[in-house]
Amino acid sequence: MTGRPRPGPGRGWLLRLVIAFAFAQGAVSMARPAVSYRALALGADETAVGVIAGVYALLPLFVAVPLGRRTDHGRCAPLLPLGVLLISGGCALSGLVSSLPAMAAWSGVMGLGHLCFVIGAQSLVARQSAPHEQDRNFGHFTIGASLGQLVGPIAAGALISGQGGALGRTSALALLVSAGVCAVALTSLWRIEHRRTTGTRPRTDGKVPVRTILGARGVPAGILISMAVLSATDILTAYLPVVGEHRSIAPATVGLLLSLRAAATIACRLVMTPLLRLLGRRALLTTSCLLAGLLCAGVALPVSVPVLAVILAVLGFCLGVGQPLSMTTVVRAAPDGARSTALALRLTGNRLGQVAAPAAAGLIAGAVGVAAPFVLLGVGLVGAAGLGLRGEGRTGPSPTGSEPADEVGTKTEPAPVGEALSDRSSRRSAPGGCPRDRHADRSPRSGG
Q1: Which of 398, 392, 394 shows the shortest CA–CA distance to 430?
Q2: In 10 A of CB 172, how many CB atoms?
Q3: What is the sign of the dihedral through the CA atoms of 287, 288, 292 and 293?
Q4: How far apart are CA 215 and CA 213, in angstroms?
């Protein structure tokens, strides 16, 4: 038998994917606060801003799993240019329309495009990375998102200025510019998927039921942690402009604060490998979520801009852990032949959070105050810390010896996916004796 095919010479495909993701995410990160400012200029209140932010995630809820199914049995690359075109169209048309319902609709198209791009990109990373490379490659992949989140708000803040009618014009300009920025991503997507990895995917006798995927130990925890972390990032992006308006913080300063948060996230992902070696997966995930929850609640305090900058910088560092580790958790836990579907379910959970969190934030902000949603986010992140403690807690053999092989870090039966994706240390200590164990014996050597 042959080993898992390598993705080709070097990691040029990953670099180009990071560049494309940086432009696509930069456009979205530029457009999201611009949509909020344009909605405010058109007369929207805090509740309406929350509804528009929620619609961004509504349409993707219905297509995430079908797209994941399609990607499990086909190519990943076609979803990438489709996502870029939908993002660009949604950004441009959000800047051209002048009614709140139309803005909400085109915001939904933007969200659908982002979903298409992310499902294709995450599936590509999972498919073209060796098991021992997944933490590193997912971490590097999410640097693209953080780069976009770093530059996008600064660009939006530089373009958006003025009050009343001027605010409406400048926010529309920012949306049109974001459409052009996203289109640049198309230049990095040529020949990004290697055909031989497409041809060597495991074949399955039909679709793996969603219930089976969600029942795999590690998948629910990965989904819920990702939902909490992304909801925090999303509310920060959509509601910090509203907080800035109430505290008389200029849009350019708000953009710098959001970009500072993104820069700290990049710093976190650059040092994630040594952090994992130092603390371990469970401790790193739990500690980062707990600290992020406390800091999110701290945003609600009426602090000065320098103190708020420090809070957002440390918060961004903590939020940098959850997304890449939750991707690896879900991929490792997913049954054979259903990894893209599992990633799509994770994204569905993200979109559920993006629908519910802004809507809840809008209601709370309208009833209590604009700072109150950040307290709600803090509670959610503290809950995610508990999930990280429990969901990733058992990495040794199951006490019953009968758990399925798609558990994270568990290898009690010699199923190919469980062996290919389990932790190298557990493979070294696991007893042999089954012919299929040679997959597990080969992977550690390839990681040396």
Answers
A1: 398
A2: 22
A3: negative
A4: 5
Using an 8 Å Cβ cutoff, are 168 and 176 in contact?
A: no
For residues 31 and 94, the answer to whether their CB atoms sit within 8 Å is yes
* DSSP-derived 3-state class of residue 306: helix
Tell me the DSSP string of 356-410: HHHHHHHHHHHHT-TTHHHHHHHHHHHHHHHHHHHHT---S--SSS---TTSTT-
**Span 265-296, pLDDT tens digits:** 888 888 888 888 888 878 888 888 889 888 88
Query: Of 333, 126, 350, 122, which is closest to residue 229 (Cα–Cα)?
Result: 350
Nearest 5°: the CA angle 251, 257, 260 is 145
Alpha-carbon gap, residue 117 to 106, rounded angstroms: 17
Of 323, 351, 366, 331, residue with least CA distance to 226 = 323
DSSP string of 241-290? HHHHHHTT--HHHHHHHHHHHHHHHHHHHHTHHHHHHHH-HHHHHHHHHH
pLDDT for residue 184 is more than 90: yes
Contact call for residues 179 and 35 (beta carbons, < 8 A)? no
Number of residues assigned to the chain: 448
Sign of CA dihedral 152, 158, 161, 166: negative
Cβ proximity of 23 and 144 under 8 Å: no
What's the distance, CA 334 to chain centroid?
18
- Output the pLDDT for position 235: 78
Structure tokens at 223: 């989904």
Taking only Cα atoms into account, the Rg of the chain, rounded to an integer number of angstroms, comes to 21
Helix and strand numbers (H, E) in the chain are 19, 0
As a 3-state breakdown, the chain gives helix, strand, coil percent values, each rounded to 5, of 75, 0, 25
pLDDT tens digits, 161-182: 765 567 888 888 999 999 999 9
> What residues contact 14, with CB distance under 8 A and at least 6 apart?
125, 128, 137, 140, 141
- Note the pLDDT tens digit of each residue in 194-208: 765 544 444 445 577
Spatial contact of 186 and 81, defined as CB atoms under 8 Å apart: yes
- Residue 229 structure tokens: 């972390």
For residue 431, give the nearest of 446, 416, 407, 411 by alpha carbon.
Answer: 411
